[in-house]
Design goal:
With 127 residues, the chain is of the alpha+beta class. It has one domain: Trna Endonuclease, Chain: A, domain 1 (3-Layer(aba) Sandwich), CATH 3.40.1350.10. Helix content is 30%, strand content 39%. The chain has a 5-stranded mixed β-sheet, with helices on both faces. Helix 2 links the parallel strand 3 and strand 4. The longest helix has 21 residues. The radius of gyration is 14 Å and the shape is globular.
């Protein structure tokens, strides 16, 4: 079992790699670790006219599944709340937005990074 501080280091390293991947892919990073009343959004960025709310999931192996599989209904609900809070706080209206996931897998000395664009939709409760 991995200790909490070690998990945090692994998560931070995953976010650093995700940021590099996104920048190389042409994303304009607006926020990193944006905190609001409901929690946190890992990365907020612009990509080709879209405002993107990006969740980064990092794992050291795939024994419990791939990192992106950890973005479940509860996580989608929380990310949706956070995204709407961000839009309201910044008075942003009528913008195309999407939810992306960056999966970072450290396994057997190798790093696999996968960007999943439009990974899920805004939780239906918020329409």
């Amino acid at each position: 079992m991995i200790k909490k501080d070690e998990r945090q280091k692994i998560g931070s390293r995953g976010e650093e790699l995700a940021l590099e991947c996104l920048k190389q892919g042409g994303y304009e990073i607006l926020e990193h670790n944006y905190k609001c009343l409901f929690g946190e959004i890992d990365i907020i960025a612009k990509d080709r006219g879209f405002l993107c709310f990006i969740e980064v999931k990092t794992r050291v192996n795939d024994e419990k599944g791939f990192p992106q599989e950890a973005v479940d209904k509860a996580k989608i609900r929380k990310i949706s709340q956070n995204a709407l809070s961000y839009l309201k706080k910044n008075k942003i209206e009528d913008i195309d937005m999407r939810f992306d996931v960056v999966s970072v897998l450290f396994d057997a000395g190798k790093v696999k990074i996968e960007l999943i664009k439009d990974a899920f939709e805004l939780d239906g409760r918020y329409f």
